[in-house]
Specification:
heterodimer; A: two-stranded antiparallel ribbon; 15 strands; B: 2 strands
Chain lengths: 528, 222
């Protein structure tokens, strides 16, 4: 009787426990599910701008639109004027340099090199009007703020190519002004997808396919999925947009991170969660970038300036990517690229205009991303490394900022006159730097952290893509021990040797036993 | 003279076979994690390795308890008596069908060589595995700064100890599997560890000083 009762009680307990475990799993939502629910609700604006009478006027200049905006949004212009989108620089503390106002005015890249002297053209990606010179531009004139480039929701607003940031003249500014709102990915993408003079030239993970990508390209932005807008991750308060690119920033602050939404321990598997201390989310979750269109991987300025029949020309590859342009030199492109991997602690150092190149025989890194295994703030991140050969002054050991753009021939611009001497002379004069007249080309590298084109969890990097001694993804990061990749040769050889010797010993011993036992038996037989 | 003696009690046999299965599992998954073999798939290997490790640690706790409660720990006290004779037997005598120099008995199951080897496993190899294994599992957490005194910057040293001990343990298993066959008959030792009973020449013989210390009262508890 006692046994029966005990059996029933224990079965009952098991049953209750089972129901408890199973049912809790059904109701408990994971972080991802909660996020999906949260972000499926798209915000609705509290104001319909087409009902404001001040916007129903015939604007004859974009500045008048700005004035109308400011008449209601009285504080916004002040916020904008503090932002790096407006100032094209941000104050950054760099170890060894102190506080530097780092931005397009003093940094140099290995694509189109720099904006100095080329503002008329480059300013089509400045959120202002009337910039013909970044140094003389009036950063205090709020009417020059271009509200529409970010807030136009009609997708018709377009900046003119070479007009210092002004829009094309044929726009219906009244209609655009009446249809403004939260920036969509087309507002951000129109500049950020085309940096460097064409689609996907710079980043590799930010390009026009993201305007309407599917989930396979980016699990967050996929129009067949969560359809997130840029500003949903790049959270913005008072026009201060989080997230930044380390081509132009140095400090570990104001970053847009995966962890903000997904937490630091997003996996069900504890071992995967342990990885997050040393491995950034992007490392596993972005197995390849430039999934749809190619990105520029190398740029050789030294071949620029060749002419056919006195005229500049271009050569394209089968996909329509330029492989040679007389104005810019030779390029190579890559699609579906595996990133390179580096340690990164969120801080960077930069080559700034006027810096002396320490060693002109080696590759010069223009934005050194700091980090190492032993640095506790460092994680492994994926990067695109863009290499170039670009002009430098052999005597002064400085990178050259050439004058590239001009509207007319004879102003010394390289893109018109194809003369490195004059372009360099004028370019360096513009920024008050010396120029010796001796030009050579130096190999440079830029590191572009890869943060977008996140794959679905089914397509993440698998364990053995790194945990292998056979050319894994982290092959080049040699400053730490990784199971399956690294072995102590002494221990492995000694250990294997010990196992082999044990086996040999056993085989010998066993053979001797068998032989001696047979001999004994034979002897015994003979003895009989 | 020969009679069947109950030499391995049920917990002892359970402990032994459980340990055998776990060590096989740990070795197979461990060497996959090390990159030497590929069988379970890397992620599974890690998961199974950790699960086996946890079970093993629970088993060790029970085994330690059992050893002290039953006094069986005394079986592992090393002795130099007959050590040379035992070595001599494995190296020469065994081929001449010489008798085992030491007699197995309930109070002295282990020959002097076994005592030495098993004791080394218990106090050197297994603790090295467990300590380095636990550090391997948890070394990241001190890095978060919670235990300032235990900051470990690299898993390398931990991994080296863990791997080295794993090789030693694997070599032991290989030799152990072979030496099973050196009993009275090739299968008598194996049968004994399965059934608990073994044919012994003498019963309740005490061969060594150490086992003489065990009182008759304890023997009767069996």
């Amino acid at each position: 009787m006692k046994k029966i009762i005990l059996t029933i009680v224990s079965i009952g307990l098991l049953f209750v426990a089972a129901i408890g475990i199973l049912s809790s799993k059904e109701t408990e939502q994971t972080t991802t599910e909660l996020l999906k629910t949260e972000y499926s609700k798209k915000p609705v604006s509290s104001a319909d701008h087409s009902k404001f009478s001040i916007l129903k006027q015939n604007f004859n200049s974009p500045q008048k639109v700005t004035k109308a905006c400011i008449s209601c949004h009285t504080e916004s212009s002040k916020e904008i004027m503090k932002s790096n989108h407006w100032n094209w620089e941000r104050p950054e503390y760099i170890k060894g340099r102190g506080i530097v106002y780092l931005g397009k005015k003093n940094a140099i890249n290995n694509f189109c090199i720099g904006v100095e002297g080329n503002e008329e053209s480059c300013a089509k990606c400045h959120i202002g009007y009337g910039m013909s010179n970044a140094n003389t531009f009036s950063y205090n004139d709020e009417t020059n703020i271009d509200c529409l480039v970010c807030h136009d929701n009609t997708e018709t607003y377009t900046k003119a190519p070479e007009k210092g940031g002004a829009p094309v003249s044929t726009l219906d500014l009244s209609n655009i002004a009446q249809h403004v709102g939260k920036p969509s990915r087309s507002n951000c993408g129109v500049c950020h997808f085309f940096g460097g003079g064409g689609n996907n030239v710079k980043h590799g993970d930010l390009e026009k396919s993201l305007f309407d990508a599917n989930k396979d390209v980016d699990v967050h932005m996929g129009v067949d999925g969560s359809k997130l807008e840029c500003v949903e991750c790049h959270k913005t308060e008072h026009h201060n947009i989080s997230g930044k690119m380390y081509s132009l920033s140095s400090m570990n602050r104001n970053r847009a991170t995966c962890e903000e939404c997904h937490t630091e321990n997003p996996h069900e598997d504890a071992i995967l969660n342990k990885h997050t201390l040393k491995v950034a989310c992007q490392t596993c979750h972005i197995p390849t970038y430039s999934k749809v269109n190619a990105t520029k991987t190398t740029w050789d300025w030294s071949t620029a300036g060749k002419l056919r029949d006195g005229k500049p020309y271009e050569i394209d590859d089968a996909d329509g990517n330029h492989t040679y342009l007389s104005i810019k030199g030779s390029f190579t492109w890559g699609k579906n690229l595996k990133p390179d991997y580096i340690w990164f602690n969120g801080t960077a150092n930069h080559y700034l205009l006027g810096d002396t190149i320490p060693d002109t025989t080696h590759t010069l890194v223009l934005n050194k991303l700091n980090g190492s295994y032993t640095d506790r703030n460092s994680k492994i991140i994926p990067v695109k490394i863009h290499t170039a050969r670009q002009p430098f002054d052999q005597v002064n050991k400085m990178l050259i900022q050439p004058k590239l753009f001009a509207e007319k021939n004879g102003e010394g611009a390289f893109w018109k006159d194809f003369n490195w001497q004059t372009a360099s002379k004028i370019g360096m004069e513009n920024i008050g730097l010396p120029f010796s007249g001796k030009i050579s080309f130096i190999k440079t590298e830029m590191y572009w952290p890869v943060n977008h084109m996140v794959s679905s969890k089914e397509n993440t990097v698998q364990c053995t893509e790194c945990h292998t001694s056979n050319g894994g993804r982290l092959e080049k990061l040699k400053d730490f021990y990784m199971p399956a990749r690294d072995k102590n040769l002494i221990i492995d050889y000694a250990g294997t040797g010990m196992l082999v010797l044990s086996l040999l010993g056993i085989v010998t011993h066993a053979s001797l036993r068998i032989i001696s036992s047979r001999k004994r038996k034979a002897k015994a037989k003979n003895g009989k | 003279m020969e009679n069947k003696v109950y030499i391995y009690r049920s917990f002892e046999r359970f402990w032994h076979w459980m340990q055998a299965v776990l060590i096989f599992m740990l070795a197979a998954t461990g060497f996959e994690i090390h990159g030497s073999i590929s069988f379970f798939g890397y992620k599974n290997a890690v998961t199974y390795h950790n699960i086996s490790a946890y079970i093993f640690m629970v088993l060790i706790v029970f085994a330690i308890f059992w050893h002290f409660v039953t006094g069986e720990w005394k079986q592992y006290i090393p002795t130099s008596e007959h050590l040379a004779a035992q070595l001599n037997f494995y190296l020469f005598g065994i081929f001449k069908n010489a008798p085992h120099p030491t007699k197995k008995a309930v109070l002295s199951k282990l020959n002097p060589l076994q005592r030495l080897v098993y004791l080394s496993l218990k106090i050197l190899v297994i603790p090295t595995m467990v300590i380095s294994g636990l550090l391997y599992m948890f070394y990241r957490y001190p890095q978060k700064g919670t235990i300032a005194g235990l900051n470990i910057d690299s898993v390398e040293v931990i991994a080296l100890f863990h791997t080295a001990a794993a090789f030693v343990l694997t070599a032991f298993i290989i030799v152990h599997l072979y030496l099973i066959t050196t009993g009275t008959t090739p299968t008598s030792n194996l049968k004994a560890m399965i059934t608990g009973f073994e044919e012994l020449d003498h019963h309740h013989t005490t061969e060594n000083k150490s086992s003489k210390e065990i009182t008759a009262a304890e023997v009767n508890n069996d």
